[in-house]
């Protein structure tokens, strides 16, 4: 299954120009404390913004990912980072809980949605076009 995912990712990237997905191990995620599996496919995708600092380079996005995960786990008491995936203004997608784990991003919808969050606050400005 892992090999299939790698091959599909390479195909998507080569042919369709899909964004790079930075895995948990690539951004240095902490191990999760618990995990609930989610049945897929899910009927909803919920888009958020993190309401924190934006990031425009891979190194600054990795720092933001670690900060968000620490906030969610240490302050909120969650098992892991709350979102399924996060998107940085560097143009990369960062794996959070991934495709098959229940998130902690939208009460009453966590078990039936993928949560995607854009890193940063976009109340007073739009994200860069690279996203």
Descriptive account of the structure:
By secondary structure, the protein is of the alpha/beta class. It is 28% helix and 15% strand. The chain has three helices and five strands; from the N terminus they run H-E-H-E-H-E-E-E. The chain has a five-stranded mixed β-sheet. The radius of gyration is 14 Å and the shape is globular. It starts with a helix and ends in a 13-residue tail after the last strand.
Number of strands: 5
Instruction: Estimate percent helicity.
Output: 25-40%
CA-CA gap between termini: 28 Å
List unreliable stretches of 5+ residues: none
**Spatial strand order of the main sheet:** 1-4-3-5-2
Rg: 14 Å
Mean pLDDT: 88
Q: How many separate helices?
A: 3
Task: Kindly list the characteristics that best describe this protein.
131 residues, alpha/beta, five-stranded mixed beta sheet, 3 helices
Question: How do the helices and strands line up, and which of them pair or pack?
Answer:
Layout: H1 2-16, E1 21-22, H2 24-27, E2 44-49, H3 58-75, E3 85-87, E4 93-95, E5 113-118
Parallel strand pairs: 1-4, 2-5, 3-5
Antiparallel strand pairs: 3-4
Structure summary:
With 131 residues, the protein is α/β, with parallel strands linked by helices. The protein has helices at 2-16, 24-27, 58-75; strands at 21-22, 44-49, 85-87, 93-95, 113-118. It has a 5-stranded mixed beta sheet with strand order 1-4-3-5-2.
